[in-house]
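Weekend entry, working from home. Most of the wet-lab plans are on hold until the incubator is repaired, so I used the time to fold the two sequences that have been sitting in the queue since the last round of cloning. Logging both here for the record. First:
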Amino acid sequence: MSISGSNFSMSGLPDIPEDFGLDDVRGEIDEIDKQLLELFVRRMHVAGKVAAIKKRTGAPIIQPEREQAILKRVEAEGGEFGGGARTLMATLIDISCTYQQMLLYGDDGKLRKKFLTAGKIIKGSKIACQGTSGAYSHLAAKQFFGEDAEPVFFPGFRDVFDAVTEEYADFGVLPLENTTAGAVNDVYDLLTLHGFYIVGETDVAINHCLLAPKGASPDGIKEVYAHPQALAQCARYIQTHGFNTNEYSNNAVAAKNVARWNDPTKAAIASGVAGKQFGLDILDEGIQDIDGNQTRFIIISKHMVIRDGADKISLTFTLPHRTGSLYRVLSRFAANGMNISKIESRPLRGQNFQYRFYLDFNGNVHDERVCALICSLSTEMSYFKFLGNY
């Protein structure tokens, strides 16, 4: 029995016989799905033939005018299901283009060649960090490079990027996001501006302490100094105690100055390591609002390094301001069985309500499916940057 030709009632639900149950419907769906799968496989084989012809003729993989004509036709012919039909066809086209990319650019793709020639070992001993000794970035550098790591410190994030640009340092260590306060937007923007690669990452457990000069009393503190991220991470504690807040470029720098001022009404929020280093008392510790607070630090380099076992990939790109454009990109990761672990957006300067996207997903560029998808996206988008596999 079939209900494919059933009339629809005024409520929008089809009229079906009383004895027609879920098993009957599911049986029909299974049969349709079987046919769809057979047609999908057939379509992909035909896409392979298309790739062969495009290679011979030099035709581009992406042909926007034809694609839009197909989608417009499918939407019109889909009737009440036109929107869904368009989405389905768009996904099929995207999967087909990725497959063609894999077939056509086996060894010819520029990005693929960069992957093959990327370094596998992080070489060099010159490390740049923002802040001063005892900062969380210092802890991150030691955690990633080893306890003997002795980075050179710079005042701001931009200075760290400049140090790597000018080759005063081989690598930079910078915070990218915190589990409480979210993304460090300045670092995202500077990554794009400089075109550097992420070659590693490390998560640092954040244990903020209230640091003050020797002999200071918790009840006497009026002013606290810290980086805006630290102030945000301790917002509840600060509000409860009625402290006035003052933003600093770095927590450890704030601690250093509090020690220099030696004013019992002023305190810094920083690590216990910074407090010990600058001779400050720990008036309270673990003052962050959420237990288990962590900051993700990235290691940046001018040169691409893809170490054995790398399992996270970061990309940045822009998309046309069209309905469904982000969905179409994300659906291609899902279609290839790739897990997206993070997506972040940043506004494009001078372009109202236009955004640059940052995306992390699990994979390795030496996996053919992963490489094919990245290479395909890189040729389709007006702006695309591979940030790293680490």
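Second, folded right after the first finished:
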Amino acid sequence: MIQITNYLDELFPNPRCELNYTKDYELLLAVMMSAQTTDKRVNEVTNVLFKKYKTLKDISKAKLEDVINIIKPIGTYNKKALNIINISKRLLEDKNGIVPNDRAYLESLPGVGRKTTNVVLSNLYNESCIAVDTHVSRVSKRLGIAELDDDVLTIENNLNKKFPKEKLSSLHHQLVLFGRYYCKAKNPKCDDCKLKDICKNK
């Protein structure tokens, strides 16, 4: 695993989430919206959404139709728009508008599952969490960290076992970026990859 972390450290020495946010709730909402779409597309709609609704209270009082119109480019927008408003209401009612370091609570919010919670806890609270998205899943399977038929929870557990706890937060970003720009689903950049000797995608 040292070979993997050394190469990822070389490629991405200072990895960060590519979703744009300035407030805790903005990250939570952006990650929830990022399911089945790209971070780039989410950033385009949140740029409009968070400029129009400058506070969590503003979002909680937004008209559903207005939110739908703003986030239409990201797909499954009807459900996500409803989630945006309801998450905002819940945070205000339950937590005074603060996104808490509380896995059980976060996973109780509409549209928020384990993957979203892991991203939020890792970025906001530097918790040792690793979220398994399509990129992390693909890279893990190609590099022999996981088997081809492993589900996301099995992959997450494998990563937790095989890598140091203090590396998990940055490793998540590195695996996402590696999968997004190098170890792509189609036309991966294998020729120059320093991990091709351990890769199963041959």
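Plan for Monday: verify the second prediction. The radius of gyration is 18 Å.
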